[in-house]
Each structure stands twice: as structure tokens, then as C-alpha cells.
């Protein structure tokens, strides 16, 4: 009988006590369930660690000094024992069937390096109407390859390398661009695999001053493409 692949889910968390339990439950309710769920508390001051620790196995929580989402994800991957790596931000959710949908793609085609799916955004239901009216939340789904929608073979992740910790935002966009440059093969399911919560303290809202990071991500991608076209090699995580 073929052994099922072991899935490690990495959950970077910074002051997400309001949403963390819901995120973890959405992971644990997946069928099949993951081998382990590693919460990396990135210096939270709101009791997030205590919430994660109440779950017990397969959830474990590791604290680090605040260093950003990229470093938290990298820390989680370094601790992971699974054959497959997945990510979920502490304020987002996986709908029912999310993990099974992506696993099925990888099981059918062993040449695939990663699998993703559709992403749908939703406004956090606890927000008052006057706040909800100020938030932008597209109704349509998208094929955006954000971290929470991807399921990646560990060997493929290692080929691309870690998330670039110099990016405060946009680190996942940079990783995907590097994965494309490395020739990773991705399949996209025509099903929603990630629900992205829109609220008043999203990372991109808190770090508006860091949006220049997206320009750095774009420049790094262009530089890699030019280097490849000229036959030069590029190294590092940038």
C-alpha cells in the first residue's frame, strides 16, 4: 500500500489572537489531516502563543523575536518533517477540502512540484458596517499564488530556497517568481483553496510604508530574467 505523504503546515503569527484559533481549526478539520502544524509566533504581545499551545498535538508553537513573516516561514520550514509544505497566515482560513484538492493534483502527477488553487477574499464578519464600507474586497475569485494557497514538495522548496527576509511584504511574490525562474511545475485547481480575511490590521495595511518592497521584488525578478538570458548565474534568496 502506498504511504500517504506527510504534510507540514507553517502558520506565521503576529498578534493574531482574535483569528488564530479559527485558522488552526480550519487546518485541523481538513481530510486528510496534516502531519504537523507549526505556529511560529513572531514576537506577539497579545496572547497568541497561549492560544496555539492550548491545541496540543499536532499543533506546536515556537516563539521567536519579531523578525517578519519571511523569517517566521523560514523558521517553520526548518523545523518541518513533512514531505509536503503548506502555509496559512494566522488570520486566513482553508475551506473544507482545501488540502485534499491540492493533494489530489500532486498524487495524480508526480512530476508536479507544487499545487495551488483559487483564492477568495472576505471581510471579517466582526467588523462594524462603517469599517466594512471602507475596505476593498473583490467578490471574484483569483488564481493568485499566495503562500496560503500553495502546497509544495519539500524537495522543490529546497531547490528554490528560503523566503527573502529583507522583504517586509511581498516575500511570497518574490518566492513564486524565483520558483518560476527555477522551472518549478505548478498545477492550479479550479476550486477555492484559500479564504483571505480582509480586516483593519492586515500586514499590507500595517506596512504601507514598506510597499516599495514590491518594486524591489519586481526589480529582482527582472534582474534574474536578464541574467538568465545572458547566461549568467544568480545566487541567494533575492
Chain-wise SSE layout:
Elements: E1 7-13, H1 17-28, E2 36-42, H2 48-53, E3 59-64, H3 69-79, E4 84-87, H4 98-108, E5 114-123, H5 129-132, E6 151-153, H6 154-160, H7 171-181, E7 186-198, H8 203-206, H9 212-229
Parallel strand pairs: 1-2, 1-4, 2-3, 5-7
Antiparallel strand pairs: 4-6, 5-6
Helix pairs in contact: 7-9
CATH class identity: Alpha Beta
Instruction: Specify the number of helices.
Output: 9
Remind me, CATH topology? Spore Coat Polysaccharide Biosynthesis Protein SpsA, Chain A
End-to-end separation: 42 Å
Which secondary-structure class do the elements indicate?
A: alpha/beta
Q: Level of helix content?
A: 25-40%
Mean pLDDT: 87
> What is the H/E order?
EHEHEHEHEHEHHEHH
Tally of strands: 7
Point out poorly predicted stretches: 203-209, 233-238
Radius of gyration, whole Å: 17 Å
Write down the overall geometry.
Answer: globular
Largest sheet: 7 strands, mixed
Structure, explained:
This protein has a single domain (7-229), classed as Alpha-Beta Complex (Spore Coat Polysaccharide Biosynthesis Protein SpsA, Chain A), CATH 3.90.550.10. The chain has nine helices and seven strands. The protein has helices at 17-28, 48-53, 69-79, 98-108, 129-132, 154-160, 171-181, 203-206, 212-229; strands spanning 7-13, 36-42, 59-64, 84-87, 114-123, 151-153, 186-198. Strands 3-2-1-4-6-5-7 form a seven-stranded mixed sheet, with helices on both faces. Helix 7 runs parallel beside helix 9 (212-229). The protein starts with 6 loop residues before the first strand and ends in a 9-residue tail after the last helix.
